[in-house]
What does this fold into?
Amino acid sequence: MAMIYNFDEAPVRRGTGCVKWDTPEAADALPMWVADMDFRVAKPITDALLQRVEHGVFGYTQVPDSYYEAVINWFGRRHGWEIHRDWILYTSGVVPALSVVVKALTHPGDKVLIQTPVYNCFFSSIRNNGCEILENPLVYEDSTYHIDFNDMERKAADPSTKLFILCNPHNPAGRVWTREEMARMNNICLRNGVKVVADEIHCELVLPGHKFTPFASVSEECQRNSITCNSPSKSFNTAGLQIANIISSNSDIRAKIDRAININEVCDVNPFGVVALIAAYNDSEEWITQLCDYLDGNYRALCDFFAEQLPQLPVTILEGTYLVWVNIESLGIDSDTLTERLLHEGKVMVNSGTMYGKEAGEGFIRINIACPRSQLMEALHRIKNVIAPAIPTSTE
Ligand SMILES: Cc1ncc(COP(=O)(O)O)c(C=O)c1O
It folds into this structure.
């Protein structure tokens, strides 16, 4: 019989050397910031890890055939994307993967396109490789985001633009991009000789009613023009085990990336990451299904709370990820100041929107809802206690 997971209960994490709970700023606050989940992982993952620990030797690790089979079977079965074994390169995380791809496919001074607001490490991966960031800001309308394709076309046409890093599903805009949108983005990139790097780390975190499509599976052109970076770590909550894959059907690109992996010294992985990936992809699908239902319940609870208690603050529609993007513009307080006040006055830690682009993220905060519902509700009450008195009263 399928196991029923109880996401209402979570292990105590404070005091376990955990970034989310043990960062000094969060010492006496509820942490609703960095993107990991407070839930215990799927039982098949813990069982597999325990078995590996029992062996008692943790030397340098090779990736076995069963690793590649797990990746290939998962994406074929669940997402209809046929991957060949030699397309897969492994490394120690998606951020190291992005950095490696930027290093491999650009020269210092080149431009890399991103759609802001977007995950903060996109900025650092580009800058750390001596490249320039080119923003194609997403357009916020009716509590959701869409792409400004004309602006994208103009920026892709800049001869210095070599790469576009796509975030699908998008952190923090909450979009799960459609096939049509991705085909259009790829056409623009292809016309202008720009390669697409698809960061698909959030790919299993999709709410009911939406469907994730791997960028590379949209068409043969998308496949040939793209490099995918993914990992089970975000969806299965194993970020500390540090493993990720870079997938490309183009052997020339793979050769360059392979070299960059070695130059950046991120070619070694740890035995637990390998074991966890195999157990996640082979045996933990039921956990993901139940998790997404639970996250959907959390998202609805948050939407109800804002609609009733803080209707002046629109909640961005969440199609994927567990990171909710709340519009605070009506308060007339900037995002960094509000985030500080929430931390010090409210004892709740969220991310300021400006982390994801100074201009594109101003006027927003990001709330991580991947925790038991009781914790989420407590956090929302704390947020309200700080925000409600700050809401400007009408002067009619
Ligand atoms: C879009 C995106 N990519 C990558 C990462 C981190 O990847 P890793 O921990 O594998 O380096 C995150 C973490 O939040 C993310 O949101």
Summary: Residues 285-309 form the longest helix (25 residues). The longest strand covers residues 161-167. Residues 35, 93-95, 119, 167, 171, 199, 201, 231, 233, 239, 244 surround pyridoxal-5'-phosphate (CB under 6 Å).
